[in-house]
Design goal:
- By secondary structure, this protein is of the alpha/beta class.
- It has one domain (about 5-200, about 220-230): Aldolase class I (TIM Barrel, Alpha-Beta Barrel), CATH 3.20.20.
- It contains twelve helices and ten strands.
- Strand 8, helix 8 and strand 9 form a beta-alpha-beta unit.
- Helix 9 (about 200-215) packs parallel to helix 11 (about 230-245) and helix 9 (about 200-215) runs antiparallel to helix 12 (about 250-255).
- The chain starts with a helix and ends with a helix.
């Protein structure tokens, strides 16, 4: 791995080998979703507890100060909406020149394995890796499932993650599931946990994150379970304790309450 790529990854993955990416890219297909109506207002109190932000170029330019920003993972796939025919019908939205111009530490792209657009989105990933490797920019593949939540089992997610790694992704973002070790053990690159649907309690969030870390994940990429919570900063503090301080879910809950 060349120096530039190692340097960018070291901005995202901390010396303890763990990471917390805060995704605020949901507007690219959901529009002004609840609690992201004003992205800057959402980001500012949470940023001190994150290791990197996952955002689109539009939000990056309009809502994030360049002088003191966290490392940026730039969302570079899209062109679908929540009211469209199929969320999987994505394309690349951002050129390599734009990625470099915005000084992204990494880029993120969704793939929809098992969908009608499987080939298209996997080809998007391969094309992006080819371009980004020229400049030492890591690619995070996101194993999206669209509206088909029932597909989130270990066998399916292990297949998705392995294919993303085989095509050259440096990091894979995927959903937590039962038998999560089967997902991480079959993926030769680091895995971060996606948030998925909003949980009922904070303890439930801490529990699935803790389990995922014990079973091989290096961190998380959680959005809705943080910024849609009643106490987002408290959830961030609790998650940071689990990720970087090896806190148990019950210990994280005490951090949250404190």
């Amino acid at each position: 791995m060349d120096w530039g790529k190692q340097n960018r990854l070291s901005q995202l993955i901390k010396p303890d080998g763990r990471c917390y990416f805060l995704p605020i890219d949901h507007g690219y297909f959901q529009g002004p979703t609840h609690c992201l109506e004003k992205p800057q207002k959402t980001i500012e109190p949470l940023a001190p507890y994150a290791d990197a932000l996952f955002v689109t170029r539009g939000v990056l330019r309009s809502c994030i100060r360049p002088a003191d920003s966290l490392p940026i993972i730039l969302r570079v796939s899209g062109c679908t909406s929540v009211i469209g025919e199929d969320l999987a019908n994505e394309a690349l939205t951002t050129s390599i020149e734009e990625i470099i111009r915005l000084n992204a530490a990494a880029v993120g792209i969704s793939v929809f394995i098992g969908s009608k657009y499987e080939h298209q989105t996997l080809n998007n990933l391969a094309t992006l890796v080819n371009e980004c490797e020229k400049y030492g920019i890591p690619v995070m593949a996101v194993t999206a499932v669209g509206k088909e939540l029932e597909k989130r089992d270990a066998r399916y997610l292990a297949l998705c993650c392995r294919i993303c790694a085989e095509l050259g992704a440096s990091v894979v973002k995927t959903y937590w599931c039962e038998d999560f070790h089967k997902v991480t053990e079959g993926c030769p690159v680091p895995v971060v946990i996606a948030g998925g649907p909003k949980c009922e309690t904070e303890l439930e969030v801490f529990e699935f994150v803790y389990d995922g870390l014990q079973k091989g994940a290096i961190g998380v990429n959680l959005g809705r379970n943080v910024w849609q919570a009643k106490n987002p900063v408290g959830v961030m503090k609790g998650l940071r304790a689990v990720i970087h301080e090896n806190a148990t879910p019950k210990e994280a809950l005490q951090v949250f309450k404190g």
